[in-house]
Write a structure and sequence with these properties.
It is a single chain. This protein has helices at residues 21-28, 36-47, 51-60, 62-69, 79-96, 105-122, 132-150, 158-165, 169-176, 213-230, 235-245, 255-262, 266-291, 296-302; strands at 188-190, 199-200. Strand 1 (188-190) and strand 2 (199-200) form a beta hairpin. The protein is built from 14 helices and two strands. The N and C termini lie far apart (50 Å). It folds into three domains: 1-129, Four Helix Bundle (Hemerythrin (Met), subunit A); 132-176; 209-302, Arc Repressor Mutant, subunit A (Orthogonal Bundle), CATH 1.10.10. Residues 2-19, 125-129, 179-184 and 293-303 have low confidence and may be disordered. By secondary structure, it is mainly alpha-helical. Helix content is 59%, strand content 2%.
Length: 304
Amino acid sequence: MNRNSTYQPSETLPPMASTSEDALFRDLQKYNCMTREEEIELAKRKDAGDETAIDEFVLRNMRFVRRLVYKYRNKGISMTDLIKEGAFGLETAARKFDHTRGNRFATYAYWWIRSHIQKAIANTGETIRIPIHRRDNRISVNKAVRKLYALGNPNPAIGDIEKATGLSAEKIKVALEPDLKTVSLDSPIGPIGNESNEHSLSECLPDQKNVPADVALHREHTKRIIGEILGGLTEREKTIIEMRFGFNGYEKHSLDEAGKQFGVCRERIRQIQREALRKLRIQLKRILDKEAVKSDNVGALWEL
């Protein structure tokens, strides 16, 4: 499958004839999902050198791609291009799929589809790009997590990933962080009030240099308290709490979304979250008893 040419399925399967998004989505509905038996049969044909089996793997799983790429909409790349990247990911997965391991193809293909889509988004000229070394680290970490999972370790610790990749714990943590949506400070936001002139986002941001001293002191104190509270958690617990409740630049994640980031089920995320919140309450009570400090942010943590 050549990236410089349009993907063409084998002659034994009907092609996706339209290029518009609506028509493409309708075309994708034509292909039914595969049963376990069909996956095994296709995998055997593929292993025997039948290239048409690769095409069929791709087409029969395009509905799955459509559902996945919907999560990446509004990222500066069209849905059609995202689906195309998903097809490249499917092809990679199809070529590497080993049916003897007992995994369903869609479960295995998910990582490859996501990897191709994330690379495409990172290369679309966004205001802030993910550094190439971070993308490479993410690929290495995801590969290690998949390998550890296949070896019977469904919930690898940071130390396990360190040994598998040779990366530091800090680099692994960064690689596991989701991409945050970025907006240019020069983005136009239109006129303000009764004005007729256009304004940019940067013009509406508060001037951090002129923050009153008491406000700045309060912010720093609150930040220190929250940092001390979260400091009692393991790195994994801290990241999960940040993701679940939208702290430190993270958007709020559902249990399923957080589980996918860590390669575990939603119930495991729930268990980790419950234990982390228990630790937070103990730590918060200790700090409040010691300093008798209550800020809006700390109060919000107490209500978790």
